[in-house]
Amino acid sequence: MRTLPVASIISLLLCPAAAVVAQEKPADLPDHYRDFAIYTSSEPDPEHSGRFILALELVNRGKRHLPTRIVLDSSPKVGFQASVVNVDLNAGTRATRRLTFHPPVGLNKNFITGKIHFGNTEARDLFIAVRGPDPEGWLPDADPDVDDKSETLTITDTAQVVATYAPRVRADWWRTHPSSTIAPRQRVKPLITLASRGQTNYVLVNQLPPDANQVAVNDLVRCIGIIADGATLPVVEKSPQHEHTIVLRVRADQEWPHPDAYHLYTTSAGSVVIEAGHVDGVRNGIYGLLTDHLDCHWFLPFDLGEEIVQPVNLSAIIGQIDERREPSFFSSNGIGGPRNRGLTNQGRMSFGHAWAQLVKGTEELYREHPEWWARDRAGNILKFDQEGAWSFTNFCTTNPEVLDMVSQKLNQQLDHPNAIVASVDPNDYAPFCLCETCAAVDKSYGADNPAGTYSTDRMIHFANEMRSRLHPKNKHKHLGFLVYAYQIQLPASAKPADGVAGMICYMDWKYDHTRPMNDPSSPSNRKFMRLLKGWGELMPQLGFYDYPTDYMHYGPYGQVNKLREDLPLARELGVTFTAMEAQPIYAANGLNHYICGRLQWDVNADVDVLMEEFFAKYYGPAAEPMRNYWLRTEYYTATLRPGPRAQRRMTANPDMWNELDSHLKAAEQIVQNLPAKNIRFRERVQNQRDGFELGRGKWQIRQAFCKRRIGPWGDDKKARLKPNAFTPANRELLEQYAVWVADKRNQYAQAAGYLPSLLPAYYMNDLEGFIERLRKNFD
Ligand SMILES: [Zn+2]
Fold it and tell me: Residue 241: pLDDT above 80?
């Protein structure tokens, strides 16, 4: 009798479609999730004391009319009565509806909840976060869930709406949406069986150059082997007049929209062809076949992140295909890995601070050539060589010798056949030169740069100058600088030449990562949007640099709700390439990596579909609690009040830790007795548990020992430690965490290449250093 439940579990895992009636996306829904947005604000009603006005702003960015009905529940704790709002929202329009509420005195944090319907379809959940006044004498960092001083939204009214979060209700129809693997019944007939039950009639004709990377080719053979229960696809170089072939080839004789674009098609003879203008395009085509048609997934990096679904019929079957695909960006670093097709143009449009590599100062050079370096108005060198070498002294950008040296080096870098960009970015936060000729450059553009800290025009001028000195054979390549620090503001009048590229940095310590960048309720994001729009219009090539992981506290950090809007929007505003700071903190932030990687390939992918597929296939029987885990992580981030440093404010919310813990426990219960064949699901839940405990442990230590916020590198200066923290109980807490960290470090080092990584070694060293310094304070 015991075999029955096990067998039913396996069949459910192997063929989920059989257990679920495939549904179509309801016709009432907007074409794209982004087509609809809702924002909320509040203000005291000037005409009625104690009454507040709640303004709902509805936006229809799509091309279809949306009959919208919002059903809002009664919320006595906020003083809000149940209401229904009907709006006929025409395509491309927005509408505002005003309601009122009477918040009770003593309101802390609560919600107005509801549902949004389009036509007859329930489409979105709605959470409107309302906060009461901040306590008297409130310090920005003293309480849970509060903002950084640099952009404090201090609440003085009885109540204020701080966030609006309207996620989709469960997309039951995800299996039939093109963003997921094609459902078997959607395959176009006649069907093609590539391999079945250990046998294949196909050969793989690999016509790629011999030096091409073979990882994707090997994946193709291996995955078909797994799907078809051991079938081995023979690999040949030339087609031996074989009837059934899978052909991989580069077609340089054709026009391609992008080196990473591909054409995947089937022929009337039943063959499969993957061709592209470049081997990288063929690689994408292979993963297009594997992921979109054969249900193979790389949800997270390393072996445990791979999920090759073996269907019950043990057969690799596809329908008729004719797909031309190209990436959304000119270049992307693909943080989900090349197997998710997000690595575009080899991610080569990436650059950082570079002046110290071009001409670097030494005491000797400062003595011998003071005129080479950034100087103040009196001629003193503005030395900026930092301990720890995070930054250096800038050079003077108008000195003729410097210009010669720099342009020579830039040409050398670009001479390399694989280089498409060289960096002309200054040293990190180092002041610019204020010598007479440099000041004259500022003046010629009408730029006011008295302290060397507003230098955009000078930056562009210098980049243009270096561009004009590129050798003819390098003229089609790029020179790049970061739109960051002293050159993030728009220029007064300088215009970049063709071939000059910028990369705008969406710093999480300065801008708001609780919500999409176009959410008008965030003051810092309004500033960022203005910059992004301006730079998008100005730059021929503009990159977007963002930070989708919590590299400070390693905690849960919901960035999907933001990325799904930001990446397509950035592209609309002129961003042509992306370079994400992808810290390999996969155990804690894996979903952010996966979704970001998929969007880097296709910004129009349906993110709910991608997420549902991730939950169902990556976690198998534990999908439901793990879905709750990830979606509630999004919820806790999206309902914070606006402001920077969202990571820290996430970790300071005890409800978040408790609730996510309960979802993990539910998942652990489900996977604890899985048969050996399905052990991977237990390991994946354990990996997530490790990521969670890493962050929670660090937060508990900070809570116990640190008075105020601490920086990313364990900023545990004595003044910031609680004087009463050094108790035996806290010592015990610290020691337990230290042992746990050491164990996990060891365990993950031994499982390198198998487990999605917990924390890279550099952050592990920081964390251990932080623990060690706290320990010393006990002595
Ligand atoms: Zn100068």
Answer: no
